[in-house]
Amino acid sequence: MQLDATVAAGAVEERIAVASNWTLIWWRFRRHRLALFSAGVLICLYIVVLCPDFFATQDPQQTDARQAFIPTQPLHLFDGGWNPWVPAIVGKRNPITLRMEWTTDPSRKTHIEFFTHGQPYRVLGLFTTSIHLIGATDPAQRIFLLGSDRLGRDQWSRIMHGTQTSMTVGLVAVTLSVILGVVLGGISGYFGGIIDQVIQRLIELLQSVPTIPVWLALSAALPRDWTPTQVFLAITVILSLVGWTTLGREVRGRFLALREEDFVLAARLAGCGRMRIILRHMMPTFLSHIIATSSLAIPVAIISETSLSFLGLGIRPPAISWGVLLQEAQNIQTLALAPWLLIPGLVVIVAVLAFNLVGDGLRDASDPYSH
Amino acid sequence: MSRLAQVAALSAFLFAVFAFQAGAQSKFHEAPALAEQVKAGKLPPVEQRLPEQPLVVPVVEKIGEYGGIWRRAFLGPADANNYVRVVYDGLFRFTPDGADIEPKIALGAKASADYKIWTIQLRKGARWSDGEAFTVDDILFWYSNVLLNKDLMPTLPSWTRNSDGSAMKVEKLDDYTVQFTYDRPATLFLSEIANQDGPDQTLAMFLPAHYLKRFHPAFAPKDELDRMAQAASFKSWTELFNAKAAPAQDPDRPTMAAWIPITRVSDQVFTLKRNPFYIGVDKEGNQLPYIDELRFTYFADQQALNLAAIAGDFDMQERHIQMTNYPVLKEQEKNGKYRVIIWPTFGGSDAVIAFNSTYTADPAIGKLLATKEFRIALSYAINRDEIKESVFLGLGEARQPVAAPWHPYFPGKEWATKYTEFDRNKANQILDALGLIKRDPQGIRLMENGKPATIEISVVPAFGAWPDVAQLVAKDWGAVGIRTIVQIRERALHFSMRTSNQLMTEIWNEDTTAFPFTGGSKFDPRNGPLQQLTVGPLYYRWLTSGGKEGVEPPEPQKRITQLVDAARSTGRDGQIKAAQELYRIWADDVYEIGTIGLTPMVQGVVVINSKMHNVPTTLGNDWPLRSPGNARTEQFFFAK
Amino acid sequence: MTRYITHRLLLLPLLLLVYSFVIFVIIQAPPGDFLTSYVATLSASGTSISAEQIQALRHQYGLDQPFVVQYLYWLRELLHGNFGLSLEYRRPNADLIGEQLGLTVALAVMSFVLTWIIAVPAGIYSATHQRSVVDHVLTVINYIGVATPNFMLALILMWIAFAYFGISITGLYSPEYTDAPWSMAKFVNLLEHIWLPALVIGIAGTARLTRIMRANLLDELNKPYVVTARAKGLREWRLVLRYPARLALNPLVSTIGWYLPQLFSGSLIVATVMNLPNIGPLLLRALINQDMYLAGAILLIYSFLTIVGTLLSDIALAMMDPRIRMGM
What are the CA-CA distances from residue B539 to residues B529, B534, B544 (Å)? Predict the structure, then answer.
């Protein structure tokens, strides 16, 4: 018995000893429950990114003046057995305050079903289908799971489409920033001297020019016939060229400190080339720091997009993004009469939370000194 | 004479003197604060401060009480017209219903039979806010030293010009009578000078000569002026002069308005105090204004301003109040702090889509935009009911941008509602008849050159509602096979594109329909794309270059310029006829497709403190009327 | 070290020259100029102005000159110490900036202090009590703080304050105190109003700082010297605060120099939404209205402070970490 236990323990140890670095990271990550859960959330979000139309209940741009400012319709699942429905609503404009007032009509129900046939759409530009996750049984009726906005558009569908735009843009911008930051910061810190000076001055120049006037100028300078999304991607790329500077400075600080370490000297003496020393020996020591910072950078990019749309400089209607949705909700009329239109803010918070927790988990998992 | 008779005569005389004095004493009254200053010897008594014939201002409800501070909000120095409108400091002003012009600072005006000579009578004894006499010299100072000074005015405003381009003549007949002489009839003279009250960045037609003399090279040495300009960081004496002549920028500058600035429009709080020499009284002889002080608080953001209005922080505010906040305001009304009323726009249409008939960047689209039937079809394709319900809270009515139904210039219901029925079939028929029969796989009509018909609507989110209108219109036009792209642009970009003829269509509002002949008329193509919407920037170039550049305007546009010229030389009846014809042309040719009009979109939702009275419930609401100035703001008062 | 500093200081004027040109290009790049924007503003508020008037103003303001002439004019004025005139306010820019400076700095300092007071201890606690309930709670609160766009928070909080508490929080003072001279009552009034904006502005910064502090400290805590110190019997709190915490602050110090320009410009969007008399909204307005001398002046001061701030950061970094000093 005791021998078996010892053998078993020995087997486990051996597994750990021969496992590759990334396997170890995965095992450690798995134990961080919150991070695992957040990773699941992110995967769900990215599935929506791939195919928002499947999740949407109708065309996000369809307007109807008679259906403006409808509150969220609660979903009921049972009606004498499994028969999901939402209550029908009746609206009337208050003659004194001119507010649209909605009441539920308990006698009428709008039945809904899952995997229903609705408006046809293309998936990733490859094939056409018309299956939606959820929709009204009678395709002529509209349901508003998260309410409608001031033009009578369905918020649920708009959030789905907004997710696609915002998450994509965040990822692209940050990937570029990270690459630039690590490469330039590393070169600056490792070589020192003139190269360091030039790169540092460049960083200062980029840092001291605030983003808003750059945006004002760029949004005027871009070709007029570009679609709003193309324009925004272009500007995001340019912004990421400005955004790498924070990481660049921090990487440089680390490099300056690490340059004098023994293992770097050893690697040099062993005949390693400069690039190899930087990438294989020095970088892994602060990989966790890079991960921590970049996991915070994606949501920062998302928030930047939101802020700029707020100023009217980022994505603009009729394109849809979280920023556009929040900008349209950014007024007293919404706060006072239609607070459900702030739900995209909750979605932003959930996404950002998920990114940060995953980043935290990755950082803890990849830190070679923690157990 | 007998002794008794002598005593009787003396007593009668003394009695008469006392009676006269008593009568004089009880004839006019003033605010308590001013009365104290008179007692302290700092101010002359009220009879001496008022002119011999003061302006008698009728009250809306009842005679008011003195006192109170009127709190308002403004958005910064560029919003100086907020103040200009409230005080409406002009020689003449428009009546509350916008139909007539009444004298204000001036006593009256007379025109010669041929309307070439106008004589204006000023009030004897009227004084500036610092006590100096207000005479014809102040108007002459403006004429000789500002209007005719090439540095201050490089080009003459159109209302001062003779038919040969030279300036009209202004002569002093006596201290209180001034004569204006033109070489052509000037029937709209009064309408023009009712707007010469010195709006932002413009000089009024009467200036305090005694104060401004030392800032003008005709009276002050040049190096002294240069030194003063330098000290204030100005480049030249003209900037200095303009800054000193603007009441909102210089609190020391005397004015004739009911309230005088004591801080500047560039401060956090722009404060104005009662003018002790104001020329107005109510019919019981109380010197106006009733309200002691006017306080404008600076807001950087319009949302914060609206929130403060909802919280009841203002006493009478209509400017920058967004129409979409009407439901919230009305709901809060029950707290009793304020009441909310509506002043609809004075005619026109609150969201029009203007088509550029001289668009050159894409000849195929340009041809369509210039085709009247195309515009008519697109007008039929718009579901105005949906726009009215979702964008305008169900207020207003569908109409083309013509004068209001209650105004004499109204062309008739048939024209006001021309092409405003929602008829998709008719729209499709007309588009088919134009040759746009073939469609691409998405259902968009193909033009002659085989490309899909695509129109761009340029819109500035100025009043919040317009981007929504643009999107609804885009959807409607898409349904009849015209692809429409909505471009939301920032203000300056939109305007510079308009002047350089780069816009296809744009959304803006069409107001000032009661003034198609005066000032910066938006209907006269000779006024250029800074005034007019993008109806035809190249027509402007053709008309101002004498036919050398640009594109020749079509007959209806030329007819409009003729009508404008004709109206300037006929009397009121002739003007009414000319205006009606102008609006019939405008509606018929739909250079601008009107959607909904007569809503309170622009300064139409008014939040009034429950304690404030004498605010009219209906008012002509338009810029030339300087609303709320035409409501006779000096008779507003706070009940205790 | 002294050589290094003087070397950097000598570069300062050259850099400012380059920056001034870049700034001027950026401000002038959008089409149109101040008057175009002005006409648009007037039009959007239902007013009009004649074309002749615009032409006269354009000539008066010197906006009809070519780009290079305008730039050289601006440069010449700057060299004479004259920041120029604001086209919108019609007053010297130095006055405008000076008036707003005090409150801007006050608000920024308050946000900064709030941020660091909360973030550093929270980060240290989080790192030393990893995976505990408090750590998780703090983490989630932090992330929510980062995730919420703070301008949105601003308007929501203002509305909630009004709708549910009846408080109208717009601006830094109640109306009676706005132009009144300084007094104890005015100071109290200021404190009553300033906590909300300082909080809103500071939230995102707090979260970020806490996270980085936590990450850095975790790195340090796993180093061998910590194990040694623990084995030698040094008490936990003394240990943590004396060595690893100071080293963990290292990367943060390199960013401290950037607070200097922040102090000056404040938070652009939040200050605008909350209607605070700050240089941030002043700059935003100037940029949108193309009030070029005002925008240029503010941006130039901002750039100057950034350069100085970076220099201070580098000096601080060198002082804290002898390894870097040796490499200079």
Answer: 10, 10, 9
